[in-house]
Every structure is written in C-alpha cells, then in structure tokens.
Design a protein that fits this description.
By secondary structure, this protein is an all-alpha fold. The chain has one domain. It is 75% helix and 0% strand. The protein contains 5 helices and no strands. The chain has helices at 2-25, 35-47, 50-67, 71-92, 98-113. Helix 1 runs antiparallel to helix 3 (50-67), helix 1 crosses helix 5 (98-113) and helix 3 (50-67) crosses helix 4. The longest helix has 24 residues, at 2-25. The model has no long low-confidence stretch (mean pLDDT 94).
Length: 124
C-alpha cells in the first residue's frame, strides 16, 4: 500500500511541476474556459503577482513530492492553492475539474499517510 501511495504522490508531483511550469512557459494549450471562469482568471491575473506565486508553490511542492523530501511541509503550502483551483472549477468551469480533483485527492491521501506528522497541529 505504501508503494501505491508513493506512486500517487509522485504522479501528483509531476502534475504540479508540469502545471506550474506551464504558467511560465505556456507549452500546454488549454481549452477556452467557461465565461465565468475566464472572468475569474482575468481578475486574478490583474493582481499581477498571484499567478507567478501559485506557479512557484506548485513547482516547489511538485519537486518535493517527487523527491519525497519535506512532503508534509509542502502539502501545507499547496493544499490551499489546490482547494481554490478545485472549487473554482466546480462552480465556474466543471469541464476542467479533472486535474484539480486528482491532485486534491492525492493531497488528502498524502495527509492521511503522514497523519502522525500533523498530530500536533490538531491538538486543542
């Protein structure tokens, strides 16, 4: 079971690196989003620093997952990004939800796999 979870972690890492690099290099042609999602992405793009920040978080987290180093820490950084991506797709563009859904499920499995490392956070 640990090999399966590690495989899911590495696959999520590869996806994060690819999606993060795509924000800088634009090598994957994306389908046109729904108008609502286009307006949302346009508003986020107007901020200026947000997409590069998200890309760096995705790339660093992906590398961490692939190398299996600092995974518990990087999950804490990338989870809010992926929850936002998942919810944006869920409510604004359901056709593009697959990648975000897979990564979010992978993050949940990583958290469950490393639950002892998060025990201190959840103490009252």
């Amino acid at each position: 079971m640990k090999k399966v979870l590690l495989g899911v972690q590495v696959l999520a890492g590869v996806m994060l690196v690819v999606f993060g690099l795509n924000k800088f290099l634009h090598f994957i042609t994306m389908a046109a989003p729904a108008p609502e999602m286009g307006a949302y992405l346009g508003a986020l793009g107007e901020i200026g620093f947000l997409f590069p920040l998200i890309a760096v978080i995705e790339i660093l987290s992906g590398i961490s997952f692939i190398m299996n180093k600092y995974v518990s820490l990087m999950v804490l950084f990338v989870t809010p990004v992926m929850v936002n991506a998942f919810l944006a797709h869920l409510f604004l563009d359901p056709a593009g939800i697959a990648g975000a859904a897979f990564i979010l499920i992978a993050l949940i499995s990583i958290i469950v796999n490393h639950k002892e490392r998060y025990a201190e956070i959840f103490k009252a």
